[in-house]
Design the sequence.
């Protein structure tokens, strides 16, 4: 009987996962083997059991294994269900507990309250700075620590603090930082180190920052002038409408 119930519960989780596949795997059913330290992840449902991917943490290898539903029912391990918030896991003592947590949502609400700052941070775009501000942050760090070196993973904390590690879009923005660093290495703002992916500030960095700031200032002035011209045009149109209405009124009242 429990095998049938577990099969229904797993089907529920897998259907939800297919619906929300674009949201970074809405659900992942996994547990750890306390004796070996291996991680077990259910990858597919079969007629009489499940296919499990076993990750050997000591050797770094993976292989597939088959679990019958009866054996799954007999597991006493803690089961982790990856929830919708990308970076938290709900720990339960079995699939039925995970089903109850998802059905009533009380653990999600508790996680949402305990990590509310991270949730608010995740709801906004990660990189909110222009390229010259990124380079400026690197130069300022170099002035404070003359022997500092920079990698795409060390630049991110300079820009966004420590919460960026749990942001759902971190991989995309890390790739952007990598492209910026490589681009500046080609043009001389940064100097590549012997270690792959590491850079130091080059001689052209300060000149490039000043040029970018001048360009940003010119762009800002152009935007302000365009806004002034737009407002002036609107005022002229309004004045013309008022004058036209006044002229028409005078012509209507004339004998």
Sequence:
């Amino acid at each position: 009987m429990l095998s049938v119930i577990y099969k229904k519960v797993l089907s529920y989780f897998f259907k939800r996962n297919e619906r929300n596949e674009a949201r970074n795997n809405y659900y992942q059913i996994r547990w750890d083997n306390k004796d070996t330290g291996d991680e077990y992840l259910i990858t597919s449902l079969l007629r009489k059991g499940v296919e499990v991917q076993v990750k050997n943490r000591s050797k770094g290898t993976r292989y597939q294994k088959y679990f019958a539903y009866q054996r799954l029912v007999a597991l006493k391990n803690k089961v982790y269900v990856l929830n919708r918030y990308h970076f938290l896991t709900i720990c339960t003592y079995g699939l039925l507990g995970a089903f109850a947590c998802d059905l009533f949502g009380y653990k999600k609400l508790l996680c949402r309250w305990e990590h509310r700052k991270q949730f608010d941070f995740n709801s906004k775009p990660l990189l909110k700075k222009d390229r010259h501000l990124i380079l400026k942050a690197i130069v300022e760090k170099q002035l404070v620590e003359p022997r500092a070196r920079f990698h795409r993973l060390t630049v991110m904390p300079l820009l966004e603090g420590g919460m960026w590690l749990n942001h759902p879009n971190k991989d995309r923005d890390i790739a952007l930082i990598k492209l910026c660093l490589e681009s500046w290495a080609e043009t001389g703002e940064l100097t590549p180190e012997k270690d792959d992916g590491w850079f130091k500030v080059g001689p052209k960095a300060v000149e490039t920052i000043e040029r970018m700031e001048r360009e940003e200032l010119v762009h800002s002035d152009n935007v302000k002038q365009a806004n002034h011209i737009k407002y002036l045009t609107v005022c002229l149109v309004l004045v013309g409408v008022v004058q036209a209405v006044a002229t028409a009124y005078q012509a209507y009242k004339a004998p």
